Amino acid sequence: MKKELIFPTPSRKGFITNYPPYRQWKRTAAESILPGKPINVYVHIPFCIQRCAYCYYRTNDLKGIDRRKFLNRYVDALCREIELTAQKFHLQDRPVLSIYFGGGTPTILTSDQLERLGKTLFEHLNVDSPEFTVEAEPVTLTPKKAALLKKMHVNRISLGVQSFRDEILEICNRLDNEEKALKAVDIARSMGAVVNIDLLSGLAAEKGDSWAYTIDRALSSGAESITIYKMELYANTDYYKSLRRKKIELPDNDNELSFMNHALDEFEKADYLPWCFFTFTKNGNYKHTYISSVWEGNDCFAFGASAFGELGSRLYQNTNDEEKYMSRLEAGELPVNRGYHLTGLEQMIRTVLLGMKLLSLDLEKFRQRFGIPLETLCGEAIDKMEGEGYITTTKDALTLTRKGILYGDYTGRCLAAPLVEMGK
Ligand SMILES: C[S@@+](CC[C@H](N)C(=O)[O-])C[C@H]1O[C@@H](n2cnc3c(N)ncnc32)[C@H](O)[C@@H]1O
Ligand code: SF4
Fold first, then answer.
1. What is the DSSP code (8-state) at residue 3?
2. CB of 212 within 8 A of CB of 181?
3. Which domains does the chain have, with CATH numbers?
4. What is the pTM of this model?
């Protein structure tokens, strides 16, 4: 039944000095806005040594241009952006929790270029000993580059392996093969870094036995962390064109689901436990700080063409035109192109979607942050997802089951559906 509203009695008394009243304010809440709140840092290198047939990322293989010269100019622009942003946002006051070099393929940069970037970060930001991840395509990780990355204090390498089967990699137009990928894992491990390998489930020509081989190799490679992305087909890829011309065949949804089920079985046997629904680590250790911190809504400053960052409830993105990106910085301007201010409702939706990626959503934290229990807003969706076996619930948390893990973002989407509906 709807509660009756009680209005105040007419009076000129009762001047509102603030809302909510000061007596509700707490010292602990002040700590989170005082200077010194840690930040995450993302550096985007949207260039690759080849264009993979399945890849939907906006990357440039720099064919037909002087690669070294172009990348030198790009790195100059990145260094300038870091310097300008650090001044403008007083970043010396805020310790860096994590750094992530993503792409594209950051290891396409020469050792000199990487070193220059590392020096700029350490000089202009408050960097002590953060988690420092670099994405690498196996063929680009030479022992010399690995030694340099170690000198730069990189302590996590994420290798795009995709498959350990040469015939499958060939259809992907990658320059790697099984031998090169395993060698890269060894190089990364010998520099003392935590190694993650990305695999793609649902590649062309993949069958149960080739997938089982890939999972087996991934586990025996010694990598501490294994990420499985489900291959998503996009219209801007060679895969898409080849499929239309019937030159390749992709596994159907049931097959792909059985690949993931197989991976979950093998990971369980080998004690590789998930910390998010697509990354599994040795004994559940080696959680990736960068991703979890950003998904929990902490600030992320992003550098590079098309890079996007997050500051509280504001999102922003740099221009994705590399030439514009460089020339704006050469003129001493920040290259931000667009932004978005999340409404309260969108912040709730984001909390549910990103929270479920991390396997478990803290209901008390949600209530404290938004002032209303998620159960009040999305009770029906929670009951449905629990009834169908995607989550378990306690009074403190919603947690993905194995079935929930298998279906990826589906659970988050269903749980957030009533919120999305409210916004319409
Ligand atoms: C930005 S790439 C960085 C890795 C590095 N460039 C490489 O491929 O060696 C990150 C990951 O995105 C994943 N990815 C690329 N295309 C994808 C697609 N169509 N669907 C799902 N994941 C994809 C791949 O697994 C890749 O390793
Ligand atoms: S998968 Fe990696 S190497 Fe291949 S095109 Fe995409 S970002 Fe570049």
1. P
2. no
3. 39-294 (3.20.20.70), 344-424 (1.10.10.920)
4. 0.94
